[in-house]
């Protein structure tokens, strides 16, 4: 564990400009970049409704489809990154049509409802 903690500390150090960090950042960009990285450090226990809504959608061990975490790059490119991005002002899940209109994105019905179902399993 201490080796992992040391590695993370070196990665997060803004003074560190090692080659391995540059390569890691390039590879990380393929999976959503630093936003995905920062969102991996969330508490695995949901403590409030606001906390629940702020959880990341992507690469979240709590949100699984076919027992695997998910990342939809097209959604992420449209700033759809947190559970709250799939809800309305009353924190109810929005419909597929509303979601597509809001984010100007065409998605498959099963893809959308797969994510919604996985999120609802947490409630």
Features:
123 residues, mainly alpha, 7 helices, 3% strand, globular
What is the percent of helical residues? 40-55%
Order of helices and strands: HHHHEEHHH
How would a crystallographer describe the biggest sheet? 2 strands, antiparallel
Total count of helical runs of at least 4 residues = 7
> Which stretches of 5+ consecutive residues score pLDDT under 50?
none
Question: Short description, anyone?
Answer:
This protein has helices at residues 2-12, 19-29, 34-39, 49-53, 73-77, 96-103, 109-120, and strands at residues 64-65, 68-69. It has 123 residues and is mostly helical.
Explain what you see.
The chain has 123 residues and is mainly α. The protein contains 7 helices and 2 strands; from the N terminus they run H-H-H-H-E-E-H-H-H. It has helices at 2-12, 19-29, 34-39, 49-53, 73-77, 96-103, 109-120; strands spanning 64-65, 68-69. The mean pLDDT is 82.
Strand and helix layout:
Layout: H1 2-12, H2 19-29, H3 34-39, H4 49-53, E1 64-65, E2 68-69, H5 73-77, H6 96-103, H7 109-120
Antiparallel strand pairs: 1-2
């Amino acid at each position: 564990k201490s080796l992992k903690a040391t590695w993370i500390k070196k990665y997060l150090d803004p003074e560190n400009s090692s080659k391995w960090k540059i390569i890691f950042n390039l590879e990380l960009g393929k999976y959503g970049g630093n936003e995905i990285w920062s969102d991996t450090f969330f508490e695995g226990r949901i403590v409030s409704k606001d906390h629940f809504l702020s959880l990341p959608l992507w690469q979240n061990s709590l949100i699984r489809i076919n027992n695997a975490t998910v990342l939809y790059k097209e959604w992420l490119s449209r700033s759809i990154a947190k559970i709250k991005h799939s809800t309305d002002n009353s924190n109810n899940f929005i419909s597929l049509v509303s979601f597509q209109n809001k984010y100007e994105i065409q998605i498959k019905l099963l893809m959308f409802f797969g994510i919604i179902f996985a999120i609802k399993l947490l409630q």
